Structure prediction request, 231 residues.
Amino acid sequence: QITLKESGPTLVKPTQTLTLTCTFSGFSLSTSGVGVGWIRQPPGKALEWLALIYWNDDKRYSPSLKSRLTITKDTSKNQVVLTMTNMDPVDTATYYCAHEIAVAGDFDYWGQGTLVTVSS
Amino acid sequence: QSVLTQPPSVSGAPGQRVTISCTGSSSNIGAGYDVHWYQQLPGTAPKLLIYDNTNRPSGVPDRFSGSKSGTSASLAITGLQAEDEADYYCQSYDNSLSGWVFGGGTKLTVL
Prediction:
């Protein structure tokens, strides 16, 4: 049974750096083909893919946010960490992590999401 | 503005059939990348509904079906039920962006 859960601050101030952790179970990020991605959703708006890391440490970033994002993995802890620098109120959103099994494929398991509000 | 284009809303009466379109371009759907569909019930995380254009994960009713042609894809829902009222998103991969792309979402209202 695959599960993922996001954790991190619920409130950050503008210009601060956001650090989110995805803790998962039911799969290993050392297994060939496995990836974990981050997707966000501003209130009332659409889903937006942010970043993804593969079992072999291959990292992909949204071109529009690449300069602000860093994704890393800790295989021994079953965790993936996303950092986003220079947070702005427009970054207020629910942030999801999700499991991906095929390159350029679908996200078949999602975490429950965590709402991050950016406000002073 | 999303890379994949969906109608903002569709509606139908219980028992009816509705379709939701997803239009892309030559760098995503038209390039041969698969299309996937998600259902998002109010206040919950997205759930995979259709993967690889036409396939249903275990547990998804066969009332839901997907198709793909050229630079577009469609999700069809037959025998509409009140519990189908949700937001639906298509997703693919874009080789010019080197990343995953989503549609803007379609809100389904069951009348």
